[in-house]
Amino acid sequence: MTPERPRGGGASHTxxxxxxxxxxxxxxxxxxxGPGTLYAALDLGTNSCRMLIAQPxxxxxxxxxxxxxxxxxxxxxxASGRLSRASMTRTVQALRICQKKLERHxxxxxxxxxxxxxxxxxxxxxFIRQVRRETGLALEVxxxxxxxxxxxxxxxxxxxxRTEQLLVVDIGGGSTELVWIDLxxxxxxxxxxxxxxxxxxxGAQGAxxxxxxxxxSVPLGVATLRDQFADVEDDAARFALMSWxxxxxxxxxxxxxAQQARAGFQIIGTSGTVTTVAASYLGLRRYDRxxxxxxxxxxxxxDFVIRDYLALGPEGRRTDPRIGRDRxxxxxxxxxxxxxxxxxxxxxxxxxxxxxxxxxxxxxxMTADGVLTEGPFT
Length: 378
Known about the structure:
This protein is α/β, with parallel strands linked by helices.
């Protein structure tokens, strides 16, 4: 596996045959949206299936309904190259729930996307046909660049007006996307809004716009990195090897070897790993998005949480309410990625984003339809 920079910026559509007699949910139809139109975004990843249904409201949107389920679609994919029958069954069951929510709310404008597991699996086409046949949902497999781009625009509200160099990191189940953006040519007050200008692609944006210096999709996420080192028994040794191995994959990322000034540099991290580390630092026994999203953490605070995870050991992490039973098996591979990133770049602070692909999908749809007023920032 090698990091990817696919040519072209569009989605990779996987064609499927329509199911006879089924009610198929397609991507957004070319209809003029009304003031009460609902939008949906579904993200089927290597580990989880998550969906948001939202309504535009001024320059933002209001979430009407949501769904999140750990489906472990990518279990065994690293070894076999295929999606297992059990993982596909679990995922279809979750998608049936999503379909019922979409139908109940009467949603017609939506994007339902799948990422790394479906990009890599040899039987992904068969799985997508099965999903369409059994649920009526038409999944769209998107390319790594679009996944990275959507994660970036979802984080736009968290960009500091003093930020000149921005690194957005999206740690997924099967891959990790990193995007380095130069904002030095953008007026400070316009920097958060300029990120939204990237929704159509990472190509040249013209003078006074956000400029993507480089981006990379590393085919290692919390699930795939864990599987790479599943045979290492010692907990601390496995963590160290995972962190070192992930850092090695960044050698071709052009900012990796470049000298960067500490002033004006910002990292935004979006993933379950980042939000779990933040919740652990805050001591939240019940997760609270309002306390986590936008939180600034220092590298010392992140290291403190990771050392605590290591001290707990596998059994302690399994029963720690701050981590949760759905994430305990994956938190150390995610923490290894996070620690590697904080070790490399010239900053001692991380901005925590409880947002990502789903929010990016919603912003992109609503922006294209012109239903957000004054852009996504007020």
